[in-house]
């Protein structure tokens, strides 16, 4: 080989929805009372639909990327996934409750510092249904 040309291209793999099925077979034993079954895996929302990865994706889209839940619902609908804004809002409430311990820990670390720096840049935010923006 006397050399090579190399080029790079940026690509993206869009998020893909999938259904995760957890199977927990039940076993009955002769000479023993009852049925044995493996414990169900723990979830942030017990017996709920969303995986932890989906909750993180929705939260990052909402809070870090500024993508409101009603827009996310429309985006997910393109993949034939129907998630209402109110359902996702309930999920964010559950997630906030679970992350309170982390938020308290971070707040204590911030308070322990000598100085606190903050970015107070305002952002235009759409008001759904009105066609107008407000400053947030």
Automatic annotation (TrEMBL):
InterPro entries: Transposase-related (IPR052344), Transposase_IS66_central (IPR004291), Znf_dom_IS66 (IPR024474)
Domain called Transposase IS66 central: residue spans: 48-133
Residue ranges occupied by any Transposase IS66 zinc-finger binding domain in the UniProt entry: 2-28
Domain of life: Bacteria
Record's protein name: Uncharacterized protein
The species this protein was found in: Ciceribacter selenitireducens ATCC BAA-1503
Source taxonomy: Bacteria, Pseudomonadati, Pseudomonadota, Alphaproteobacteria, Hyphomicrobiales
């Amino acid at each position: 080989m006397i050399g090579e040309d190399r080029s790079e291209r940026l690509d993206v793999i869009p998020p893909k929805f999938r259904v995760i099925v957890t199977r927990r077979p039940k076993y009955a034993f002769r000479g023993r009372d009852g049925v044995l079954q493996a414990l169900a895996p723990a979830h942030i929302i017990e017996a709920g639909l969303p995986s932890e990865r989906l909750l993180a994706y929705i939260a990052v889209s909402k809070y870090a990327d500024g993508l409101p839940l009603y827009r996310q619902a429309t985006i997910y609908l393109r993949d034939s996934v129907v998630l209402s804004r109110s359902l996702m809002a309930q999920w964010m409430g559950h997630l906030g409750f679970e992350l309170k311990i982390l938020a308290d820990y971070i707040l204590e670390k911030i308070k322990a510092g000598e100085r606190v720096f903050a970015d107070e840049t305002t952002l235009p935010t759409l008001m759904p249904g009105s066609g107008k923006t407000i400053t947030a």
